[in-house]
Amino acid sequence: MRLAIVGTGYVGLVAAACFAELGHEVTCIDNDDQKIQQLQAGDSPIYEEFLPELLVRHRGQRLAFTTDLKQGLAGVAAVFIAVGTPATEQGEADMSYVEEVSRAVAQTLDGYKVVVEKSTVPVFTHDWIRRVMLLNGATKGSFDVASNPEFLREGSAVQDFLYPDRIVLGVDNQRSSKVLREIYEPLSSGRYYRQETRVPGPADPALPRVIVASAKSAELIKHASNAFLATKISFINAVAGICEAVGADIQEVCAGIGADSRIGRAFLNPGIGYGGSCFPKDLKAFHAVARENGCDFRMLEEVSRVNEEQIQRFVRKVKGALWTLRGKKLAVLGLAFKGGTDDIRESPALAVAEMLLREACELRVFDPAAMERAHARLPKQGVTYCENAYDAAAGADALLILTDWKEFAALELDRLRALMAYPIVVDGRNLYDPTGMSAAGFIYYSVGRPALAARTRVETGVRVPAAARAK
Ligand SMILES: NC(=O)c1ccc[n+]([C@@H]2O[C@H](COP(=O)([O-])OP(=O)(O)OC[C@H]3O[C@@H](n4cnc5c(N)ncnc54)[C@H](O)[C@@H]3O)[C@@H](O)[C@H]2O)c1
Questions:
Q1: Ligand 1, atom 41: closest residue by C-alpha
Q2: For the purposes of burial, counting CB atoms within 10 Å of the CB of 155, is it exposed (0-12), middle (13-18) or buried (19 or more)?
Q3: What 8-state DSSP symbol labels residue 432?
Q4: Distance 187 CA to ligand 1 centre (A)
Q5: In a mutational test of the pocket of ligand 1, which residue from 18, 68, 73, 83 has the highest number of ligand atoms less than 8 Å from its CB?
Q6: At residue 467, does pLDDT exceed 70?
Q7: Which among 418, 422, 420, 443 is positioned nearest to 432, based on CA atoms?
Q8: Tell me: the pLDDT tens digits for 385-412?
């Protein structure tokens, strides 16, 4: 089928590349001229595993890029809107980009199309899109509006898209339902999974569940899913705080809670809180939706509060490990909001780095993908950008792990310790086993677990604070 995607960001570009991978002819449309030029020249504007391979495979064949909406929409069966929906100052979703695209699509319609919301939007958005389109020259029957929320996670976006748990189709009539089902048929039938060239995934992938709902319900499914996941993270972070207070181990507690099939182990990962371009803003937007519709959902405020507090707690932990912060040289591993991406939007790692800079620390930072973006955001003074984790650790008073990159969980500990001025690690992602770190000679702090002193004798001159005494 011929498809158009408007908005070529993290979601739009991945969706476009994956739709091309499924056999569709896709045109990506974006009003960012530089981004389109970059894509036309063969570069990817974002870091995402398997995306470069898909772009190479389909560019110029089934995948095209343009800034010209009219050209991009010519003859397509469906147009996916994947533009940003950032939070306004009041916490509502800013729908002005979606409105702008709806208006432009209405003015260029050249035959029946399904207009699909891929962006995360508040309930009733499909009604607004329809209304805007009718006011801008589109005639009844020349289009339908459907909701097809996206559940991919940055860091594993391509695999999430091609091996989803479920595909939600929010459709209000048969005609649009048929188009959307056909678009996803290679996944729902399992046909894609029998291709030799498929993107690596499970050996025997389960077929995704296709959930057909009203557009209104589909819009709510997305907001409620993100709100629930954020709640799960804040819940386990709050439990981690209790574990620290009583000397219990959050990993053991998580294993115990997660073994209950009604709860599940996923997303019970204590850390420095959630971030990224979705959870913080979607939580606010969902709260605003509830408020506007006369429903009191204050629980969501508490979820945000716990999340913000988690960053402060971490910085207090660094202080607890180092006594004073002024002038301390700290190795910072991770700037992206999570491993596997270069996205620094609402990154708790960056928030921690910024707080430490305000305390006059000197930071030696490293992130495998997010350095360029972070460079544009962090103050120039007090930050040294390093080649790798070991370079960052050289001469450091302590090492902080702020992002859960896989490679940060596999560091050569002897090498690291030899490089550092003091063998202190404050791990905001629980990437290491405390006993192993202690045996490797580190004074190790993590989240929701007792801090451990170095088991081997270390001539640090640093007294291990009471809170960090060995078990
Ligand atoms: N990033 C994620 O992990 C994720 C996951 C699921 C859903 N979502 C949702 O998807 C939507 C997009 O998120 P994103 O992270 O891809 O955003 P993004 O900022 O990376 O991309 C948005 C793109 O839209 C383009 N754009 C804006 N206005 C335009 C216009 N009028 N015409 C053409 N292009 C225009 C921008 O230039 C940009 O390239 C948001 O609603 C988000 O909540 C994001």
A1: 119
A2: buried
A3: S
A4: 24
A5: 83
A6: no
A7: 443
A8: 999 999 999 999 999 999 999 999 999 9
Structure tokens at 36: 């389109």
Q: State if residue 7 touches ligand 1 by the CB under 6 angstroms criterion.
A: yes
Positive or negative: CA dihedral 402, 406, 410, 415: negative
Whether the pLDDT of residue 466 is over 70: the answer is: no
- Residue 423: which of 445, 448, 391, 449 has the closest Cα? 445
Distance, CA 291 to ligand 1 centroid (Å)? 25
What's the pLDDT band for 363 if we cut at 50, 70, 90?
very high
Contact 447, 272 (CB under 8 A): yes
Virtual CA dihedral for 352, 354, 358, 363, nearest 10 degrees? 90
- C-alpha distances out from residue 287 to 13, 125, 290, 304, Å: 28, 16, 5, 11
Q: How open is the CA angle 425-429-430, to the nearest 5 degrees? A: 70
Alpha carbon distance 452, 468 (integer Å)? 6
Biggest distance spanned by C-alpha atoms of the chain: 78
Considering the chain, what is the average pLDDT of its residues? 95
- Under 8 Å between Cβ of 334 and 349: yes
**Which SS3 state, helix, strand or coil, does residue 146 take?**
strand
In this structure, which amino acid lies at residue 400? L
Q: How far apart are the first and last CA of the chain?
A: 62
Distance from the Cα of residue 315 to its chain's centroid: 22
Residue 68's closest CA among 122, 110, 108? 108
From the list 28, 278, 361, 386, the catalytic residue is 278
Q: Is 35 in the pocket of ligand 1 (CB under 6 A)?
A: yes
Q: How many residues appear in the chain?
A: 471
CA of residue 167 to ligand 1 center, whole Å: 19
Give per-residue burial for 198-229: e unless 16+ CB within 10 Å, then b.
Answer: ebeeeeeeeebebeebebbebbbbbbebbbeb
∠ CA 5-11-13, rounded to 5°: 55
Using alpha carbons, select from 305, 303, 306, 363 the residue that is nearest to residue 335.
363
- Which DSSP state fits 87? B
278 is catalytic: yes
Contacts of 33 (CB under 8 A, 6+ apart): 67
Helices (H) and strands (E) in the chain, counts: 17, 14
Confidence of residue 454 (pLDDT cuts 50, 70, 90): confident
